[in-house]
Amino acid sequence: MRSTAKVTIVAITALGIGLAGCSDGAGTPSAGSSGKTSAGASAATSSGAPAGTTGTGAAAPCLVGTWKATGLSGKLSGPVTGSFTGGGGTSLTVDSAGRAQVDFGTMQPVTFAFTVSGGDVKGSFSYGGKVNGTVKTPAAATGTWEPAGTVDFSTLTVTVDLTSPAAVRVADKASIADFAGTGTADTGGAVDAQPVLKKSTYDCSGGTTLKLGPPQGGPDTGTWTFTKA
Questions:
Q1: Are the CB atoms for 122 and 148 separated by under 8 Å?
Q2: Per-residue pLDDT tens for 49-87?
Q3: I need a surface site. Which of 56, 155, 184, 215 has the fewest CB within 10 A?
Q4: Contact (Cβ atoms closer than 8 angstroms) between residue 186 and residue 16
Q5: Distance CA 228, CA 106 (A)
Q6: pTM of the full structure
Q7: Can you tell me the distance from the alpha carbon of 36 to that of 174, in angstroms, rounded to the nearest whole number?
């Protein structure tokens, strides 16, 4: 690795950038913790809701169904400045009781680029595995959804590749609980510890499009856009 690359990555790590979203909502994974739901999780229902979800929730009628992500986009700010975009192919299923599953098996990579300490950093990441949980929302087509009970992040993984200032694989299908430590610094906070199933604003007023974004005043962890499958 070139010396300039080493200097830039060391500078990133020295900032100790916190993982975006790691303190928001229930079920946050942390190093050494699986983030798994408790035993006795409810079974799958005939509506297609996943097994392994807990909590008593409810979903607005326009949220119910299966959704396919067209992408994730967001801005980075604070110690770093930059942006990230990509992530199409991710699947989200929600039933009327708020039981939800996110399947990252067909997720396309998210590319990110940011500047820190005078250096430019570029790369990409993708999640793997599935996340199960229960959300609660008002009955309206817009509002806030948040986890009801514990969200199961135990099978969520992340793969991260830097392309600049050096080509290096930072994480290869690493558990999100392990990556939530020092690994996040290499992405400038673009990787979210709680993708999709966390406290978010939602808008499904169009019927065929769903947008999930960070709550007003919160950090920009990106906005997911889905279309009805």
A1: no
A2: 454 455 688 999 999 999 999 999 999 877 789 999 999
A3: 56
A4: no
A5: 16
A6: 0.78
A7: 16
